[in-house]
Amino acid sequence: MLKVQDYRPQPFIDFTQPENVAAYQAALQKVRAELVGKHYPLIINGERVDTEEKLTSVNPCNTCEVIGTTAKATIEDAQRALEGAWEAFETWKTWDMDARARILLKAAAILKRRRLEACALMTLEVGKSYAEADVEVAEAIDFLEYYARSAMKYADFGAAETTWFEGEENGMLYLPLGVGVSISPWNFPCAIFLGMLAAPLVVGNCVIAKPAEDSGMIAGFVVDILLEAGLPAGVLQFLPGIGSEVGEYLTTHPRTRFITFTGSRAVGLHINEVAAKTLKGQKWIKKVVLELGGKDALIVDETADLENAVTAATQSAFGFNGQKCSAMSRLIVVDEVYDAVVNAFVERARALKVGTGEENANVTAVVNEESFEKISQYLALGKNEGEVLLGGEAPGEWGGKKGYYVQPTIIGDVKPEARIAQEEIFGPVVAVLRARDWQDALAIANSTEYGLTGGVCSNDRERLEQARNEFEVGNLYFNRKITGAIVGVQPFGGYNMSGTDSKAGGPDYLANFLQLKAVTERW
Ligand code: NAD
Question: How far is CA 174 from CA 94, 318, 519, in A?
């Protein structure tokens, strides 16, 4: 019997060991030989379908290099995918929960064997350093292992508690919703892509998965693993394409039962709006699960271990170039220790190595031209909204390679209402804010519309307890970095404009994709 208690997160690879670095470099060579230049077609009803137009993945650290292509779905493809998925649903929903779960477990086993290949592909496609890619593939495996086991609690009639009543049998049945669309971002193109489709699938839904435009190859790689693990035709339709075209078509379609979306606040709110409109022939109110952006803050007070705080700030701000929804983009320091903390933070960040993912640099290029342009605009704005203490430029090349390179940037004495302290930048750019004292720091932290992650470095017990209740974020960390949530350990999801707080990798996540039926028999 599968039990969630038996789940254990994957350990991470230690890249201080030379043999692990060598293994990673061998994987990069293998991927260059076997995957670079590959084309991933759509998969509809188990068949590979090609399209006239294609989407191209480019190495962001060396934009002259094409990594590969995927097909680009049309509206007709999306229509066929939706119809086919409803047909497949008729059978898939009747499978035993443990049989479906076994497919996830087998996929996890295959992904474990191909772990370094998946990592190396992301290094080339989105510019992840070795450790960043590794923790992501570990997370992807964790999602499969965790959701497979947690599905068991929804398997039986009577699994949900009801109260005894004389002369009757009462109980509840968890039933899948039907066919849904899963739309994912490029920044965790393996783990989030996989987690967002595995969860609805394991409890009996069929899914149309639309990966982000920049990261279709790792998505195709992962889908192949799920098919190898035995997923039947039509249950998962793979539909790379343009968000505003096929994504929009699917989210507005009356036969879409649920939407699970991770991405920007603007697109998420738009989806929320269009999904709420009822169309002719629509039989249900669409279920919408949204995980959006953040403007995440770390507070450092005068009681903190300052060395530890600076480490936490550096890791949280610059891991994967600040391109994590959980990344620290505001550092809030109380006046008494402001200079000491900020000076040490700047020196630590100055020592970060910029370069390519393949070189395993600490800070690599940002994902694409649109991001690069957007971050460049914020850098210009930042010069007026504070004092540039480090970086401030986006050179667009590094070490002789053309790429979307942005310098690690720290801007000091930013006012809480400044745009760079309020808006998500999604790059290696930190706004530092000076607080009068602890209470002021907490008020500043809560002064944005977002509420995803946050942290406090302090040794004052009362303050930590106050933050536990009053810091408005879905994921709160004390005396450590604010990124790197582990499946099952730190269920993940944001408050306010950061999302619907669905808590991916949490004990109730699968319930988002189920409906309950209460059944009574009078004896
Ligand atoms: P994005 O919103 O630009 O795109 C996300 C996905 O939406 C892509 O697949 C895109 O093709 C699709 N899309 C775009 N327009 C659409 C439309 N009109 N209809 C349907 N689909 C559409 O986001 P991104 O740049 O890929 O990702 C970065 C964002 O994601 C950041 O804001 C980040 O904070 C957020 N994010 C949040 C979490 C979380 O768990 N809260 C995790 C990762 C990323």
Answer: 12, 42, 11
Please tell me the distance from the alpha carbon of residue 503 to that of residue 506, in angstroms, as a whole number. Answer: 5
Q: What is the pLDDT of residues 130-172, one digit of tens each?
A: 999 999 999 999 999 999 999 999 998 888 889 999 999 999 9
Which helix (H) or strand (E) element contains residue 201? helix 191-202
Q: Are 93 and 221 in contact (CB under 8 A)?
A: no
Residues whose CB falls within 8 Å of the CB of residue 120, separated by 6 or more in sequence, listed in order:
24, 27, 28, 30, 31, 133
Indicate the pTM of the whole model: 0.98
Residue 244, classified by CB atoms within 10 Å of its CB into exposed (0-12), middle (13-18) or buried (19+), is exposed
Cα(first)–Cα(last) distance of the chain, in Å? 32
Q: Which residues line ligand 1 (CB under 6 A)?
A: 183-188, 192, 210, 212-213, 243-244, 247-248, 251, 262-264, 267, 270-271, 291-294, 325, 424, 426, 452, 494, 498-499
Does the annotation mark 291 as catalytic? yes
> What is d(CA 175, CA 170) in angstroms, rounded to the nearest whole number?
16
Within 10 angstroms of residue 122's Cβ, the number of other Cβ atoms is 28
